[in-house]
């Protein structure tokens, strides 16, 4: 699972799955859904900071949000808070109450999701590793067949845990090419990284036998297949149950 402070993975399609008229409303009112998701994430982050400091005082110098994982309950809160913000803006743009019902509905659903998260518990990890970004590629000599290749990377920490994979990079190569792949600047706690590649974006395979050193590149000269596919990131190692705290009015 991704960390809360990774790039938010809630897209318009997921929001629209919870509200069938969302895309039409956003287009009609000129609302940027991506910005609303980021704003919702930031609001939730502030509420969780207060909650976690109250429930479990963090170690000195440790950001209490650093290890928070986007569990299904937290993801649901992020979805409904995003929808609440969309319809709040839509309502404020209109001189009538056309969107007021939707605003109230999603506000109540966001409160419900927050309470549910409090009862289930806020999932955290001890040694969080950030989501990777898109890889960089340079063509070199190799033995790849000509075609389009898709690549993703994921950072690993000193415990061997893997963070959420980054977005796909698609690159076209000619027969006899290879690819020099870089993961970019390593985030805090990164000890290495894994590379996944393939000619089908839905069937990428791990290319390296062991994690690549965090600051090193990796050269793909032939494509490895049949190994494991990218994961979803770190699973929660502990849950912090808090009731009656996250209930914004």
Keywords summarizing the entry:
single chain; alpha+beta; 2 domains; five-stranded antiparallel sheet; three-stranded antiparallel sheet; 10 strands; globular
Model description:
Strands 3, 4, 6, 7 and 8 form a five-stranded antiparallel beta sheet that branches. Strands 2-5-9 form a three-stranded antiparallel beta sheet, with no helix packed on it. The model has no long low-confidence stretch (mean pLDDT 91). It folds into two domains: 12-127, no CATH class; 136-220, no CATH class. The chain starts with 11 loop residues before the first helix and ends in a 9-residue tail after the last strand. Helix content is 33%, strand content 20%. The chain is of the alpha+beta class and 249 residues long. The chain contains five helices and ten strands; from the N terminus they run H-H-H-H-H-E-E-E-E-E-E-E-E-E-E. The radius of gyration is 21 Å and the shape is globular.
Alpha carbon gap, first and last residue: 29 Å
Assign the structural class, choosing from mainly alpha, mainly beta, alpha/beta, alpha+beta, or little secondary structure.
Answer: alpha+beta
Uncertain runs are none
Q: H/E order of the elements? A: HHHHHEEEEEEEEEE
Number of domains: 2
Strand tally is 10
Q: Please, what is the average pLDDT?
A: 91
Output the number of helix runs.
5
Radius of gyration: 21 Å
Question: What global shape is seen?
Answer: globular
The portion of residues forming beta strands comes to: 15-25%
Report helical residue fraction. 25-40%
Largest sheet: 5 strands, antiparallel
């Amino acid at each position: 699972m991704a960390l809360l402070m990774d790039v938010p993975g809630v897209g318009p399609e997921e929001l629209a799955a919870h509200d069938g008229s969302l895309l039409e409303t956003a287009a009609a009112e000129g609302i940027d859904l991506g910005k609303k998701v980021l704003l919702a994430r930031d609001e939730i982050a502030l509420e969780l900071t207060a909650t976690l400091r109250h429930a479990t005082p963090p170690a000195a110098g440790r950001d209490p949000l650093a290890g928070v994982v986007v569990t299904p309950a937290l993801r649901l809160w992020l979805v409904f808070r995003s929808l609440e913000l969309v319809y709040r803006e839509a309502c404020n743009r209109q001189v009538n109450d056309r969107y007021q019902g939707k605003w109230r509905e999603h506000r109540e659903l966001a409160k419900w999701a927050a309470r549910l998260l409090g009862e289930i518990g806020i999932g955290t990890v001890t040694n969080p590793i950030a989501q990777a970004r898109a890889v960089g590629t340079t063509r070199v000599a190799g033995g790849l067949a000509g075609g389009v290749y898709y690549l993703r990377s994921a950072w690993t920490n000193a415990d061997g845990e893997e963070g959420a994979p980054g977005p796909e990079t698609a690159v076209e190569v000619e027969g006899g090419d290879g690819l020099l792949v870089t993961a970019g600047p390593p985030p805090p706690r990164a000890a290495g990284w894994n590379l996944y590649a393939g000619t089908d974006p839905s069937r990428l395979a791990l290319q390296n036998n062991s994690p690549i050193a965090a600051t090193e590149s990796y050269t793909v000269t032939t494509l490895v297949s049949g190994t494991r596919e990218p994961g979803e990131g770190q699973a929660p190692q502990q849950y912090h149950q808090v009731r009656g705290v996250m209930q914004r009015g």
